[in-house]
Every structure is written in structure tokens, then in C-alpha cells.
Amino acid sequence: MYLVALCDDDVAEMDKVERMLKSYQEQQTGDDFLIRRFMEAEELILLLKEKAYDPDLILLDIYLPDRLGIDVAKELRKIGNRGQIIFLTTSNEHALDAFEVDAVQYLVKPLKMERFFHVLKLALGNIQKIQEENFVINTVSGIRQIPIDDIIYCESRKNYQILCLKAGKSRVRMSGGELYQKLGCFSCFLRCGRSYILNINHIFSINRDEVCMDNESKIYIPREKVAEFRKMYFSYYFSKEELR
Fold first, then answer.
1. Which of 2, 41, 81, 144 measures 20 to 30 Å from 129, CA to CA?
2. Residue 178 has pLDDT above 50, yes or no
3. CA–CA separation, 49 vs 138, rounded Å?
4. C-alpha–C-alpha distance, residues 174 and 136, integer Å
5. How far apart are CA 60 and CA 208, in angstroms?
6. Looking at residue 244, what is its pLDDT?
7. Distance between the two ends of the chain, CA-based, in angstroms?
8. d(CA 19, CA 53)
9. Interior CA angle at 81 toward 76 and 83, to 5°?
């Protein structure tokens, strides 16, 4: 399921694009779209700032009533959205600016079905690559896609798990065992006692009874788990070397 944000002040144009998306969906088994419309960019920006919405694909009109689509895209990138952006416009005037926000393509209206499908396929391919590196989870503030490398460690606090990220923290309502199971498909996560799950790639050093993370956090290793933890830690790095 792909979250698709369609931002255009022209209802007729949005109807047309939505029909094209549904036509593509019918032809490509497994490519399902959950489409959300935005007549103004501010609503989309606000939802992203509140972490209530994080679209995979953004179909963005260049000429919006409140601001230029290029400026909207720049703000979305600053907020942290990594979604694929496809600009829709009636002019080539801002085509070069699209590269500044890593847009997939700049399509001039009226849209041609074959060209639109080609660009859409490219965008979805990029999304799949990103999702393979992301952890999708339902936090207390909404569903989030978190790049695996952004997770430094996770800490259990009663019925919640605190995700310590590169840029702040996020809270998840589940047990430590449930979270570890969800992270199990990523080989870089290792349990440290019952309270912590560590991203091995963010370990700076291991001392006699504690782990120092690269954000300067220090995490205690239960005495009876020290030997097992060290063994698993070095096993991870030896296996990486063998794959090179």
C-alpha cells in the first residue's frame, strides 16, 4: 500500500490524475494506492509537521494559490519527508528547480497516460528501495517510516518502548519482545538485557559492563549477559566482512 498525496487547487485535474492512478493500479497487481487530496499546501505541511501523515508519493502542482510547489517541496524536505515527488505543471519555467528537491520528474499538463505510467513506475521503484531500508511502525503520534540507520537504540518503559533516534525520540505502545520481533528482519539489532535493543552500527565501544553509543549514551550490560553480548556483536561484524 502506497500513501499518495495529491496536491492541486484544480479539482478537475485532481480527478484526472486520480483516474490515471486507479488505471495504473488495475494494471499492476500489488500496487495499491491510498490517495489523499489537498487543495492547499499548508494542510499537507501541517500534517507532516505533526507527524500525522507521511506520504510515499507526492503529486504536486507547481502553481498553487498560496505558494509555488517548488517552495512547498523544499519545506517538506526540511521537515524530513523522503517521499517521491512528481511535479505537475502547465509550464517548463521551474523545471531546473525540481532537481534541488530530488524530484522524480517534472510533467507538463495535459498529462499523457503512457508518460505518466512510466514516471510512476520509476517513483514506485524508488519507494520500494527506500522501504527496504525503513522500519514502518505505529507510534503514539501515528504511523511512521523510520530509516533503520536513524534508530540508535530502543528502551523499555513499562508498556511503552522509547525509540532513541538521531533526531529526537518516538514512543511506541508495545512490549520489548514485540518490538524486537518486528525488528528481527534487520540483522543490526541486538538485545542488551530485557530493557534495551541496540543498533550495532551505532555502538562506539564496549567496556567491561557497559556499551557506549555514538550519541554518547551509556547502556549497562547485565553481568550474566556480557559474554553472550560480545559474542553476538563480533559475530555480526565478522559476517559483514565475509560478505565484502
1. 41
2. yes
3. 16
4. 14
5. 54
6. 40
7. 34
8. 23
9. 105
Cα–Cα distance, 62 to 94 (Å, whole number): 8
Report residue 116's pLDDT band, with 50, 70 and 90 as the boundaries: very high
Residue located via cell numbers 559483514: 240
Q: How far apart are CA 159 and CA 215, in angstroms?
A: 25
Structural contact between residues 206 and 144, judged by C-beta atoms closer than 8 angstroms? no
In terms of DSSP bridges, do strands 160-165 and 151-157 run parallel, antiparallel, or are they unpaired?
antiparallel
Angle between helices 11-27 and 113-132 (to 10 degrees): 70
- pLDDT value at 73 more than 80: yes
Question: In 3D, which of 65, 133, 67, 58 has the Cα closest to residue 101?
Answer: 58
- Inform me whether the pLDDT recorded for 232 exceeds 50: yes
Residues near 106 by beta carbon (within 8 Å), at least 6 away in sequence: 87, 89, 92, 94, 95, 98
Q: Are 66 and 41 in contact (CB under 8 A)?
A: yes
- How many helices and strands (H and E) does the chain possess? 6, 15
Q: Distance (Å, rounded) from C-alpha 166 to C-alpha 154?
A: 12
